[in-house]
Amino acid sequence: TDYANLYAKPSLAHPFGCDELGRDLLTRLLVGGRYSLMVALISVAIGIVAGMVIGALCGFFGKVVDNVLMRFMDIIMAIPVSVALGSGVWQTALAISVGTIPIIARQLRGSTLLVNSQEYIEAARTFGESSGKIILTHVIPNCMAPIIVQASMYLGGSIMAIAGLSFIGLGVQPPTPEWGNILNTGLDNVSVLAERWHTIVFPALFIILTMLAFNLLGDGLRDAMDPRMRK
After folding, report:
1. pTM confidence score
2. CA distance 176 to 168
């Protein structure tokens, strides 16, 4: 602990000031951003891959497969996964990915139902292609556009989810830096907020600006991939 720099205000030596242990806040926020982005990317990747597979199977086969898998998705959405898995970097990534799977699965199920009625799917069946090949080569590629757009937006939502879980003590735990737990530390004693405003403002700005960047990326991808939006 550097007692001389406890809650030091922003300066040339420490542009964002120091935290409760005299550590440079900018350095901790940059390292925390690495963990936040890593967890967000892993969780969204797992959620999208698993959700795409489940959604494609539900929309393509329908009936019993659809009912069983969709009811399983309902069960997953009802389970407090983050509490069940505990806290930590990988536990947080898995908890967020599990929460993303039912959303992606439902979205891809709807898209698959539309694609499944197209003539080229019937043509593929006529030529004797297997169900697995049709799903991989025709169904999923033609449902990718909305998934790609949603993925960028889910990244922003995952950043907020990670920060929220860490803020309440269910996500990434100190001393591992993460924007949520850094913000929580700054709010420990509200009676002296005037002296430690930088420990609250800068983590919050990092969270807000990152979410805004991913949401703007999603809007741009949506406009680029949907001809109707360009008009």
Report:
1. 0.79
2. 15
Closest by Cα among 162, 195, 188, 168 to 41: 162
Residue 129: other Cβ atoms inside 10 A: 15
Q: How far apart are CA 218 and CA 76, in angstroms?
A: 26
Note the helical H segments in the chain: 25-61, 63-78, 81-85, 89-116, 119-126, 131-134, 140-142, 144-167, 179-186, 198-225, 227-230
Q: What is the dihedral of CA 229, 206, 89, 166, to 10 degrees?
A: -110
Which two tokens mark 66? 């659809």
Peptide bond connecting 175 to the previous residue in cis, omega within 30 degrees of 0:
yes
Q: What's 178's DSSP letter?
A: -
209-227 pLDDT, tens per residue?
A: 998 898 888 888 777 766 5
